[in-house]
Amino acid sequence: MAFDRLVRRNYAAVVHIGKISALGSPHTRGLSHLPLPRTLTHYLGRGLFRFLLTVQGLGAFALITLGVMISKFGVARRLMRPRVREEIARAGVRLLPMFLFMSAALGLLVIGQAVSWLTRVGAIDYLGAIMVIVVVRELGPLATALLVLARIGTANVIELGTARAMGEVEALEALGIDPVHYLIVPRVIGMALGVFALTVYLILGALLSGYVWAFLQDVPLRPEEYLRQLAGSLRGLDFVLLALKTLAFGSVIALVTCYHGLAQPLRLEQVSEATVAAVAQSIIVCVLIDALFIIIYLTT
Amino acid sequence: METPPAKPNVPALQMEGVAVGSLHDPSAIVAEEVNWTVAPGDYWVVAGSQGSGKSDFLMMAASLIAPRGGRYRMFGEDMPVFEDARLKVRLRLGLVFDGGQLFHHLTITENIALPLRYHQNLAQGEAEAAARGLLGVMELTPWANRTPATLGRSWQKRAGLARALALQPDVLLVDNPLAGLDLRHTHWWLGFLDQLSKGHPLTGGRPVTLVVTTADLRPWKGHARQFAILKSQRLVVLGAWAQLAAASEDLLHELLTERIETE
To answer: Which of A76, A224, B97, B202 could form a disulfide with B118 if both were Cys (CB 3.0 to 4.6 A apart)?
Structure first.
């Protein structure tokens, strides 16, 4: 009961005076440290509060980042351009070897399963269409996003969380350097472009390796026929939506991981907890974005 | 970025009834009703025992946390926190953190060059050339290309000082500079801060206004010119060293740990 009264009083108070901070109100932050609720209603209520606070915090952080990106465009170009290039290399170029392996594996995965079933039902002409639907529209972007999240997103939380815990963010502010501009903007741009570029490479690699695996399984399909099937299955909208989806995945992963690393005061022992939360939330948001794009595909 | 012209007869820092919060605990107040004026050229030592809120006090003075009450002005300008329009005024103040708070992914040279690159849009080579002068004065040249984690704490503090001086501030806030230093480093710091206070070539011979925190007043005799202590959430302004003897504060005697010897 104490939990219920405390939450109602504190939360209502800060809502009333309009002082809910975008980065977590000191009053409501206590929610995560309160003892476990005893009833399902408490549990759901607490979960709802935390969900709303997270959505509010993430939304505010995204808007702040967008605002800084626009208002500080051109500030300290000689410092920021190399920072952006470095982040593109980190979230893109340096992951290429892993993605070459993944593209070969993805081609095998899809073709290996699909060829066997399509041959049985005599529908081998649909191989190209299946590759487009599975690899281009779905697995390619999502697998890329999840791999980049695992390799770079987690590193973001740890780096920024450690920097925050060690007082480096205050040091930036003391020097008059906007931490969002210096630390977040390059990561968002780098990761958005990185996910986009890696997805393109992953798709091209998977389409190529798919044909190689089909050839090795003696599928009677000539290269020009395979290309014709692929071209016939692709629409102009696929390219537009692929670009939008991958840029959205990259931006969202960067924002969520940077939010958990930077936007909330952390102690060193909280960094691992923040990393787990960032990964879980990034996956959820990516899946939601993916669902949105599925609806767009189905309605156009 | 050009430094705005100094206004004559305007205090460097001025606090009127200021309440100071804590950086790590939003609900805590570390000092209340602070009325304090720092004139250009002053050399203050603010003493307090561990946990008295000295670091938070400096953070607020550096505009990293907003005052929880009262009015705080820097060079005559009210200081809201993180407002770009006041950036030029804020850059007239440098802050040296207790642990240096260097950026662990950058080398010592890059750490010092960072504010120059950001605010003056210098290329890496230009900024690092400018940083080399500071490295030499701080005796950090042998470690110029090392990352902070490979340096001892004493040298990290000096690198933090060099970084804070890169933009040639008018006011320098130094958090607990002598904590954990051996005798050699202690003498170096005291001598260097004296030079800054009188005018150092690094700042074009211009005297720098200094505010230093400490948990031990003794080393500052003959160096600092004004003293204050943070005690029971109050800033008690004591005045010059000679006036310390007349002060009846218990804490003062703890911070001196011996009888005050006045000339």
So the answer is: A76
